[in-house]
Specification:
The complex is a heterodimer of chains A (304) and B (277).
Chain A lengths: L1 H15 L1 H38 L2 E5 L16 H12 L7 E7 L1 H11 L5 H4 L8 E6 L5 H8 L5 E6 L1 H43 L1 H10 L3 H42 L8 H31 L2
Helix pairs in contact in A: 1-9, 2-7, 2-9, 2-10, 7-9, 7-10, 9-10
Chain B lengths: L1 E8 L9 E8 L4 E5 L6 H8 L7 E6 L2 E2 L8 H5 L2 E5 L10 H11 L4 H14 L15 H13 L5 E5 L7 H16 L3 E5 L3 H7 L2 E6 L2 E6 L57
Parallel strand pairs in B: 3-8, 3-9, 6-7, 7-8
Antiparallel strand pairs in B: 1-2, 1-4, 4-5, 9-10
Classes of the chains: A alpha+beta (304), B alpha/beta (277).
Chain lengths: 304, 277
Amino acid sequence: MRLGFVLREVIAGLSRNLSMVVSIVLVTFISLTFVGTAILLQAQINQMKSYWFDRAQVAVYMCTDFSTLGGCDLQAASADQKIAIEQRLQSATLAPYIDRYYFEDRDQAYANFQDQFADSAVVDLVSPELLPETFWINLVDPEQSDLIFEAISGLPGVESVIDQRSYLDEIFALLNAGSLTAVAVASLMLVAAALLIATTIRLSAFSRRRELAIMRLVGASNRFIQTPFVLEGIVAAAIGAAVASLALWSIVRIFVQGYLTDALPGTVFIGPSDAFATMPLLFATGIGLAIVASYVSITRYLRV
Amino acid sequence: MILFDDVSKMYRGAPKPALNNVSINIGAGAFVFLVGASGSGKSSLLRLILKEERPSSGEIHVLGQDLRRIPSRKVPLFRRSLGVVFQDFRLLPQKTVFDNVAYTLRVIGKSSGFIHEAVPDMLQTVGLAQKAKNYPHELSGGEQQRVAIARAAVNKPAILLADEPTGNLDPATSAGIMNVLSRINASGTTVIMATHDSGIVDQMQRRVIEIAGGRIVRDENEGGYETSAIPLGELDTAPITIITDHSEGISAPTPLKLKNVANPDDVAAAFPWELRA
């Protein structure tokens, strides 16, 4: 009886303020889509991080006849210098931190270079002499590249020591900025959604003021009076969250899976499962927001 | 049943208190008229009983409960044992007579079975059993007020508060309303009725409490509508002239019947219909 009564009130309230309900749906949809996008961007960043950080190496570039950096002075690194580096890598101080390392000579470097830039004219301009010999080092813990810098970078014959992760950090900084922007837009939109829900509930309460007055007079409990209004907010926000979930799934499915994966085959991308994982959060955010906004609104309206 | 002990009520910004050191004791099953000029404090008294307002000082006990000690979330429960009727009926226009009366029971969670038993019973009591399916706009004023009374009394409240229930009705219709109220009173409900209708008060000969300027100036059993509250200067503007003989004492019945003294300013000013806009 009471449940039926409450549900009828909710439906009546929703249909009476249809235009406001539609605007709540739209605003929560857009704000939650931004929230979801931010989350997916973070998921993408994490995915790339775990993929690349495992593969990222520290490169110790040896001097070539053309390099002026470090202690090179246009002199290619000598065999003794290379042996010294190798001994340093095998020494008791560094060995525990190094998973494995290998030496890449000029010809291998050239072959790799040709592979990498196969379609580019730059291949013709490069000869093996221009490319440095390199020690590629995989660390046990990729965070500890500083150790290699300190131990190696000053040694004779070393042009430079580069942690590949420093390249990745730039990409991640860019993606992070993107997701922060999405979060900022999302929070503004969420504020707008909360205010809109509060206003709609006030309108809804105003259009039912006669009933409310009588309910209070005859002693309907506060919870009983408030529940239909809070449910109204929840229903509207839940619809918005559902549309936002659909939008996120479409973004992943059509844009990421359908376009980006083909366009950038070398990169791992998030899949629909990541989109599904964010959906409960979208619903929780939208519904939580609706509960707070409509409860506060109706409670303030009812306070004499 | 209802006990006011030295109660005062000040409204913010008002120079004078609406009620000033009022003490009343109303027993169970009583029928009490509350008379006095507009703005004398009748409605404030009713609002205090309903716990829509809290007194500025003094103690109010209703149904054995100290109103100051009822936490606000318990107020709804307290109000279930009170019924209220207004001058302007306040029915829900989009609901039938039956649904208007049933609404009270629905919102406090009564079962459908109980509603279908109690509502027709109550409509029978107020003489509207035939009009259960009509809408309020299809009824006369008197019938609408009967619906409002049915709504107030359907939950068998211990106390029925009526704020000028006959204020909008002609004398014959008013008499019908009073019959209904008497019937409800006879079944054990305490009825407190604020009114300006001297004819009714004189005829019923029940307890009369007269308020003027926030003070109780008269409290007599089986009294009439003798009022000293309307100053002579206002007689010109009052709808009907009143002969007031101060030397004769306050208990003498008025020779003139006073009908619908309610002036336009008084209508519904007491209970704001919009709770808060």
